[in-house]
Amino acid sequence: MKYVLVTGGVVSGLGKGVTASSIGLLLKAYPYLNTDAGTMSPFEHGEVFVLDDGGESVIEKERRGDYLGKTVQVVPHITDAIQEWIERVAHIPVDGKPGSADVCVIELGGTIGDIESMPFIQALGQFSYKVGAGNFCLVHVSLVPVLNCVGEQKTKPTQHSVRGLRGQGLAPHILACRSTMGSNTIASQVLDEAAKGKLSQFCLIPGENIITLYDVPNIWHIPLLLRDQKAHEAIFKVLNLNCVIKEPRLDEWTNRAEACDLLHEPVRIALVGKYTELSDAYLSVLKALVHASVDCRKKLFVDWIPASNLEDATAKENPDAYKAAWKLLKGAEGILVPGGFGDRGVQGKILAVKYARENRIPFLGICLGMQIAVVEFARSVLGVKDATSTEFDPNTKSPYVIFMPEGSKTHMGGTMRLGSRRTYFQTKECKSAKLYGCRSFIDERHRHRYEVNPDFVSRLENAGLSFTGKDETGQRMEIAELPNHPYFVGVQFHPEFKSRPGKPSPLFLGFIAAACGQLDVVLQRCSNVDSNSLLKVPAIKTYQKKSSLKPSYRREYVLESVKGLNF
Hints:
It is an enzyme of class 6 (ligase). Helices cover 34% and strands 18% of the residues.
């Protein structure tokens, strides 16, 4: 097994994750590592991304007596556990085929110098020595700023970052440098030869292993940027894989990236959530919307609506915010309520669901969004005015959403229903089953403590809310739909976590298709093909290799506080 580690220096938010996944695309290696993310706050960490697998903690080992009563220390117990975990996860098949991958790509979160990441850096330093030279490649993503008063690219921050990395036992083989814009031209963002020379001399890295990462129209161009600068060849050389060096086949990927640049017909989605002040809290939801929009040949516009701004209390306290929120909601072609925890903004989410249901606006509810849809249906259709979740009112007399019986009410960490779980379709005639290719079951990722109360399911279904997907026991509701609505789907799982460019999540694809009037075509296509071949992107034009200096490149995102997020 070969390993590629991607680290970051100087500042956060430089694009370590994008760089790591782009390297994975180039090398056709996609393993990704995960820990128990159950209790992380999106405001503190951005989005909490859940994978199929779980993890075993050092504390669990100590409780079992694996350390024979010895004091548990950062070194060697925690660092050893990190290394064991990396090796175990790296050998798990990731492409549906038997056997492990050839290369594992690892992203080290945070920035070099952070005290929180020191145990991991120590562990990875030991790990690089353990696997040996030729089996470990370190790519360091760093910042080369430009001071406006000088107009010169400054390499000192990166030099100090590399020095700090070396001081902790890790030596980078490749530098991927982001440069701040001196102007709006790409030439100003590309490392000049003088800067490259300084970095090579003081960081002890060959000049050909120093790569420029500049702003592109969308992040799907990053693998092409790395390919054009021969990053894959540099990695193969470090890993002693010269015998397998070949030009990556990225024709389909290139067509998709360039097709995304040409989109102009809009589709406007209202995202009603609790953490809308931080878009990274819903990053995978955002990306899944992009994947589906590109497949539908639409340009995505996302309007971020704080759920609490839709509530009557805001109408009194801040009427302008209230009017602006409702104006965005009523102007949307689709309404999405994502996951979340806590009771803040719940009433606003209920109002958003009610508006979508009554006005036949395409709706997708994820995790809490599905639970909110059930509560709204019980209140508005069944007439149960006090219907709610025990998460919001533990003493409610109408608990339509309840705490899962197997969960712990006293211990928050490690008690969620996390990871991949199987959902069985109750009928193949529903929209969700057709979108998944008329399969009998699906495996999707979960992250929740609460569920729809099975005692009320028959009453809900008799009133018209259909639970089209359930777990293996038939007692846990996984998918809820309104059959007579253009598109009203709620799911207990998180379909966004398995969405990919060129293979969008079926439920997101259906949602966007419904929002732009293409649902019938998509349903027919999906129900006639296997889900592994959903909507392959046709070639738009043949990609011609160009210089890495592309004058048409512009900033990736345009963020406007009122108009929303434009891709």
